[in-house]
Each structure stands twice: as C-alpha cells, then as structure tokens.
Design a protein that fits this description.
This protein is of the alpha+beta class. The chain is built from eight helices and four strands, in the order αβαβββαααααα. A hairpin with a 7-residue loop joins strand 3 (81-88) and strand 4 (96-101). The chain is globular and about 45 Å long. Residues 8-21 and 215-219 have low confidence and may be disordered. It binds zinc ion. Zinc ion binds next to loops.
Amino acid sequence: MDHHDPPPPPVEECLTSSRKRKYKGGTLIAQGVRTLDEHGKRVADADLYRPEICPACEGSSLHVHDRLERHPRGLILVAVLTVLRFICANPECRATWRVLPAFLARNLWWGWEPIAHATQPEIAAPTEAPEPPTRTRQRWMARLRSSARQLMVLLASRGTQAVQAVGAAVGVNATRTALVREHAVQLGIPVLWRLATLAALVDRLERGIRLMWRWAGSA
Ligand SMILES: [Zn+2]
C-alpha cells in the first residue's frame, strides 16, 4: 500500500473500512445538548464538552484548542454561538475536534428545530421562529424525499439490533422521511427531535454520510 491519501471510497467500501484512518480531526456532536442553556453551561465549563477519547488515536487527553464563533440561522434570540474546539494532546496525533450541540445541524448551520418545522407540516412552528428561504426549504424537502438506501446499508451494518429492525420495517425502497419516522416510532423519539437524533446517529456511525446533506463539507 502506498501512503498517499486515496480519493474518497464509494459508500460500500466506506462502511467496511476502519474508522481509525489518520485524519486531522473533525466535528463531534454532543447528543445530550438540546438547549441553549445546556450549551452555555458546557461552554463555560469545558470539561462538560471535552471528549473522553480522541476518535482518531483513542488518546484520553484533549485540551481546549480555541473557541469558534458561529452564526447559526433559525435560532430564536441567538445571533452568535460559541463552539469549543479541542486538540488531542498526543504529539503523534494532534487532531482537532469541534463539538457541536445536538440542536445545531452540522454543515447546515441551521438549528434542527426550524428544519423540523419547515419540513414536517405536522409540527407547528412557534410564531416568532425565523423561517428559512423557500429554496432552502425545497432543498431539504427534496433530500428527505430521496432514497434512504445508503443510510439503510449503514444502519444495517453498524447499527444496534433496534436500529436494524427499523430498516427491516421500512423496506429497501423507503425514503429518508419514512426512515426518520419509523426510527422515531420504534425508539420512542419525540417528533421534534427525530431528524436531529437520526442525523446524529448517522454521523456517529460514519463520517461523510449525512441525513440531510449529500457530502461532508458541502454547503
Ligand atoms: Zn488523538
């Protein structure tokens, strides 16, 4: 094997290759952080956000690297959000990891709540909530109407038994919307959180595969 970075592998190969490839870090999602209050608490006390292990080298020592300012869209009363980035102390590794709260959709920079309101008519939006532009909403809808096949392969190969049962229940031709709904029903996830929860699971299982977005890094 040579040591050049290969081009991104096709999906099936992604699923079987090790996640311990050398990379310089990325984004982690803090599943428990669903409110701004909780996020603020953890930004103030970085230990609450600090990853227990570095996903790249499994080292257990990470330091706060810097604090990033982000301007998420669609959040009520919030213009600027501070996000912590940690760096692995292992000199061989030095991967950096920014940790996002679960209420923020990675890569989209929208809060999950406005995305849920905009794409799922059965969830009533609070009147003061900012609305996404029509084009943005249409893109999200199109993505949710598309085939869930890639996600099903991922969940079937890496998911828990409960998650595998979800795939079996919706069938191979399901849309992403159908998968999101069935996953929420079977695992008892509140309606407002069903997109965010499945997106976080997908993200944890495989970097580079997205529930709402086609490629990592696209905007
Ligand atoms: Zn590391």
